[in-house]
Amino acid sequence: MDSLDHLAQGFVVAARPINLLVAFLGSFIGTVVGLLPGLGPINGVAILLPIAFAMKLPPETALILLASVYIGCEYGGRISSILLNIPGDAGALMTALDGYPMAKKGLAGVALSISAWSSFVGSIVATIGLALFAPILARWALAFGPAEYFVLMVFAISCLAGMVGERPIKTLLAALIGLVLATVGIDSGSGVYRFTFDDVHLSDGIQFIVVVIGLFSVSEMLVMLEQSHGGQVVIRNTGRAMFNLKEMAETWWGTVRSSVIGFAIGVLPGAGATIASAITYMVEKNLTDREGTFGTGDVRGVAAPEAANNAAAGGAFVPMLTLGVPGSGTTAVMVGALTLYNITPGPMLFEQQPDLVWGLIASMFIGNVMLLVMNIPMVGLFARLLYVPNWILVPGIAAISFVGVYAVHATTFDLVLMVALGIFGWGLRKLGFPMAPLLLGFVLGDMMEQNLRRALSISDGHVGILFQSPVSVTLWVLAVLVLVAPALVRRLRRKR
C-alpha cells in the first residue's frame, strides 16, 4: 500500500500543468528524434539537458522532460525501421527484420500501429515493475559482475543463430564482422592503436552512427536504386492503418512475455534495449514460429522486439534510481542531470526526494498514454512516406544521413567511411548476409571486451571466473542450447 500511496502523490506532481506540458513536448520531440536514423535517445537527451538546466526548470520537471524524450525515442525508432529498413536506434534493429517486409507487402499501417501498441504495453509493464519492485530488482542486478555480463553478451550473440532459420553460419559470421569493427581504435587497456592504419581519424574507433547509416541507409539506397534500374515495381500500397482484433490476439502473449523479459534485462546496468530485443525476438521465434514466417513479415516479429526495447528502457531506471548506477547510456546522461541539481541518485533517493521519484514514475504512465494517442493517429501520415517517389526519397535519405554523420566530428573522413561501409554492406546483402547481427555485434563488441578485461583482472587472468557463478553457468548452458537446439529440431523434422 505504501507504493500505491506514493504513486498517488506522484500523480499529483505529474499532473501539474508545467509537468504535463514538458511530458507532451518531450514525447513529441523524442518521437521525432527516434524517427531520424542514427540520432537515438542518448543524443536527444543530451541535446535537451543544457536547455532544461538553462531554463531553470525544477529538478522533477527536468527529469520528466528527459524521461519523456527517452521513451519517445524508443517509440520513434520503429518508424524508419519499418518504412525504410533503417533503424532509428540500436534498439529498433530487430523490428526491421519483419517490419520492413510487412511494409513491402502493403502492411505498413498494420506494422506501425501494432508496434505502437506493443511499445505502449512494454512501457506500461516496465513502469508498473519500476513502481512495485524497484528495490528488490536492484539487489538482483548486483548479482551480475563483469563475468556475468560477458557471458550474457555471449548468450545474446548466440541467440542470433536462431533468428534467421537456415542461415546460422552467415548470421554468426556477420556478428563476428561486427565484433571486428568494434576493435578499431585505441586499446583502452594498453593504449595501443589497433587497426587504425596510422590514420588519426580512426583513433577513437568507428562511430556507431557511421556504421548504422552506412550499413543500413547507404546500402538500402543502393538496393532501391538497383530495383528502380532493374525495372521492378516499388510497392506503394500501405493498406489499412490499424491492426485488427485477430492480430492483437495473435501478438498479445508474445507482447506480454517480451515486456517482462525486456524489463528484466533492462534492469541490468549496461545491458540495454539492443540485447533485450534480440533475445525476445529469438524467444518468440522458437516458441511461436511453427510456419517459419519470422523474417518474412510476421506481425509477431514486430510486436515482440518493440515491447522488449521499450520495457528495457523503463527497466534502466531501476538501477539509476535505487543504486545510482546508470542502466543505459541515456540514463547516464540523466544521472548527470541530477548532479547539476546537487541530487545524488541512490538508495536514499526514494526517501529524500519522493516527489522527484514518484512524480517521474507517474509521468511515465501519463507520457506513455500521450505517446500512444499521438502515434496511432499519425500511422497514416508516417505510412505515406512510401508514396514518395524514389527520385525524391533516395536523395532525401542521403541528405539526412550525410548531415547526421558529418555532425559527429565534422570531418569528411566519416562521410567517406560511411559510403565505404555502405558499399560493403550492399555486397554482404547481395551474398545473403543479414545486417542486423553485424550491427548487434558492433554494439556489443566494446562492452564484451571491457567486461572480459575486468573479469580477468579480478581473477589474475584465470579464465575459470567465467564459469564460477550459478548465473554464468546458467547463461553458458542457455547459449549452447540456443546454438544446438535449432539444428536438432530441423533434423527431427526431416526424419518425421
Largest sheet: 2 strands, antiparallel
Low-confidence stretches: 229-236
Evaluate the radius of gyration: 22 Å
Number of helices: 21
| Structural domain count | 1
Order of strands side by side in the largest beta sheet? Answer: 1-2
What do you see in this structure?
The chain is mostly helical. It has one domain (2-495). It is 73% helix and 1% strand. It has 21 helices and two strands. It has helices spanning 2-14, 17-35, 40-54, 59-84, 95-104, 108-141, 146-159, 168-182, 208-229, 245-267, 272-288, 299-315, 317-323, 329-340, 349-352, 354-375, 379-383, 390-409, 412-430, 435-458, 470-495; strands at residues 185-186, 193-194. A two-stranded antiparallel ribbon has the order 1-2. β1 (185-186) and β2 form a beta hairpin. α2 (17-35) runs parallel beside α4 and α4 packs across α6. Mean pLDDT is 79; it is low at 229-236.
Secondary-structure map with pairings?
Blueprint lengths: L1 H13 L2 H19 L4 H15 L4 H26 L10 H10 L3 H34 L4 H14 L8 H15 L2 E2 L6 E2 L13 H22 L15 H23 L4 H17 L10 H17 L1 H7 L5 H12 L8 H4 L1 H22 L3 H5 L6 H20 L2 H19 L4 H24 L11 H26 L1
Antiparallel strand pairs: 1-2
Helix pairs in contact: 1-16, 2-3, 2-4, 2-16, 3-4, 3-14, 4-5, 4-6, 4-12, 4-14, 4-16, 5-6, 5-12, 6-10, 6-12, 6-13, 6-16, 7-20, 7-21, 8-20, 9-18, 9-19, 9-20, 10-11, 10-12, 11-12, 18-19
Key terms:
21 helices, mainly alpha, 2 strands, two-stranded antiparallel ribbon, 496 residues
